[in-house]
Write a structure and sequence with these properties.
heterodimer; A: alpha+beta; Alpha-Beta Plaits; 2 domains; 4-stranded antiparallel β-sheet; 24% helix; B: 555 residues; alpha/beta; Rossmann fold; 6-stranded parallel β-sheet; 23 helices; 18 strands; 36% helix
Chain lengths: 170, 555
Amino acid sequence: MTTIASQQQAPAAAHAESRIRVLSVLVEDGSNTLSKVSGLIRRRGFHVRSISVGPSKQAGRSVMTLTIDAGHAEVDQVRKQLDRLVEVLEVHDLTGHEVHSRELVVARVSAGEVDGLLQRGARVLDSGPDGTTVEFAGEGKDVGDFVNELTRHGIVDVVRSGPVVLRRTA
Amino acid sequence: MVLEALEREGVEFIFGYPGGANLPIYQHLPEHPKLRHILVRHEQGAAHMADGYARACGKPGVVFATSGPGALNLVTGLCTAYMDSVPMVAITGQVNSTQVGRDAFQESDVIGATSSVTKHSYLVTSIDQLPRVIHEAFHIATTGRPGPVLIDICKDVQQADAQRVTPERLEIPGYRLNGHVDLADAEKAAKALSAAERPVILAGHGVLLSHAERELMQLAEKAGAPVGTTLLGIGAFPVQHPLSLHMTGFMGTGWNIKAVQNADVLMMVGMRVDDRVTARLADFAPKVKTFIHVDIDGSEMGKNVRSHIELVADARNAIEAMIPHVGPVDAGRGQWLAQIDAWREEHPLRFTRSNGHLQPQDVLIDMYRRCRSEAIVVADVGQNQIWAALWWNYDRPGLFINSGGAGTMGFALPAAIGAKFGRPELPVWCVAGEGGFVMTAQELSVAAEHQLDVKIVILNNSSLGMVRQFQDDFYGGVRSQVDLTHMPDFVKLAEAYGLPAVRVDRLADVAPAMDAAERTKGPFLIDFRIDPEANVYPIVPLGKGLNDFWEAPDK
């Protein structure tokens, strides 16, 4: 279980973290949708921390999971401004709600021996003379810890997704 | 297909300019005599004409331009309309759909370039989309908080054969209208206003857009609350009404500023509460205990000022819902209104005539004496705009048109032309400084071609007056790049374009020149050589709070 607001790393960052909004946004698929959303974020002085996009359960519509820093604006402006876009159908502000939040990391390490990673729940995708490729999914903090663990195995390459977030029902 | 759709939407005027990528549309234009096309001399002029037309008559302005430079020349005009919530539909030609992205001749990413200055935009790459898109565009442009919508149509789509299709029922799931008023909040707002010791209502453009002027007056009179307007809200409340505070903001009247700064309940309706209204935000309306904000756009709530009662609704619906709940007003109300009257006496609008130059106020006072409430004034941007806003008693909506949010120089002449097409029965006066005037002066051709009865008043102070005033007062007195003595002879310029003109440099010649303008059928230009040192007052020094406003010096 994760509460988004509890993902703060350091108390000193608390003020900055309170300006972060986690939004699940249902959008109409279209050639201009991504640029409208990103253009709005830039124009209003917000900053993107992460963005994940994928198809929704409805044809022709996608869900964007956005982690946005409101910058100098009022924090609820992020939701309100997104809501004004005709391409945007629904905006759910998940900040402070209990959610399932998952990020994916795929990494290649030079070590052949990766038991430490497997114990954390990683899965091996392939291994060979160039190293071992593993994947791991989890909450942001666990993914961060996992990436720290990777360094001990000699990171060759690593890619990491932004979070996808679903509100908990219970 | 495009033109048929425009006829279906009830379009009367198109302001446009043909070019390579919209030739197929122009080819068929003569078959549609109901659509009156006005050939402009620059696309920016088309956008401002459509804007002035829409502001004057309330119908959406329609613009045509070709791809690339044609479409990009619209950007300033779209921005002007977007900032001031003006309904407009711009139809631009785009290169063939198969050429998009190949840097074809006169190709540009018009959707990308205009996304931030339009309410919505469409790139049409297939004929099947066209009827729906045009119908949606007019709906989006004219409903809710109005604004410009752009339709970029690939050339091959314009040429495609298609069966006549009547658009299906509108279904735009991402477009929601806020019409519904929360009745409990409306009641709360009405009670707060009634119970206030020192209430003030500020009215913005939203009051005009929702035609809530009558309801606003009922509310103000019933609640005994004085009413000021923003620059764009001018006309929402009669300036000569006993409860009028005239214009608010950092160039507002002294009695308005005093009222706002001493109010305990401030209701802001149909406005964005931008920096030109608040001046230094931290010092804005410091005694207010209850802010009430009414706006149709929910994102305006708390954007600049966080209100205690927020009504996301059409201004007229919201005010109508409030009126029945206005209770017995606070016993101190008479004292508050008497205090405002005292401030009105203490801080009148004033100017001095001592240095022998013609003063801009003299020109406007003479104009007002002639026109009263029977003319539209279209102002440009700068000192001329504020003088025209303050030195005229607008007592009806729709008589003052200007670029408030964007502050676009060069707006006045084309917008006045558009306004005249929209309201041919009313005299239209264009008031501009010489700096803004030359930015779009080529549109004089349009005024002359159509023999439009537009009277052009240039308040010519041989400088970029507002910038000069700011430099004098707020930037160390360094006059930098504001001298405009090298300008064309405007009388000769007007004559070259085919319209009569006179120059006036003393008070005694103002009335005869105005007489000549009024006698002349068709366009007429007067170059008023005004005091080069004339300033706008009151004014709040940049970066200061409203309490620090400066008044005209007594000399």
